[in-house]
Amino acid sequence: MWYFAWMLGVGFALLLAIMNAMWGENEAARAQQDDEENGEFHESLP
C-alpha cells in the first residue's frame, strides 16, 4: 500500500506546482494591468 501514498504525494506535488505556475502568471498579468491603468510602464522580467 506504500505505492498508494506515494502516488498521492506525487499527485499533490504536481497540483501544487501547477497552481503555483498559474498564480505566478496571474500576478504578472495583474501587475501589468495595474501599471497600464496608472500610466506606468515597467519591463516585466522573463
Structure description:
This protein is an all-alpha fold. It has one helix spanning 2-37. It holds the Pfam family YbgT_YccB. Keywords: Plasmid.
Pattern of helices and strands = H
- Largest β-sheet summary: none
What would the average pLDDT be, to the nearest integer?
Answer: 86
Helix-strand category: mainly alpha
Which stretches are low in confidence, meaning pLDDT under 50 for 5 or more residues running? none
Number of strands: 0
- The helix fraction, in percent, is over 70%
* % residues in beta strands: under 5%
Query: How far do the termini sit from each other?
Result: 43 Å
Shape: rod-shaped
Q: Count every helix, treating DSSP H or I runs of 4 or more residues as helices.
A: 1
Keywords: Plasmid
Protein name: Membrane protein
Pfam family, one: YbgT_YccB
InterPro entries: Cyd_oper_YbgT, YbgT_YccB
Per-chain topology:
Blueprint: H1 2-37
What are its keywords?
Membrane protein; single chain; plasmid; 46 residues; 1 helix; YbgT_YccB; mainly alpha; Cyd_oper_YbgT
Summarize the structure.
This protein has 46 residues and is mainly α. The protein has one helix and no strands.
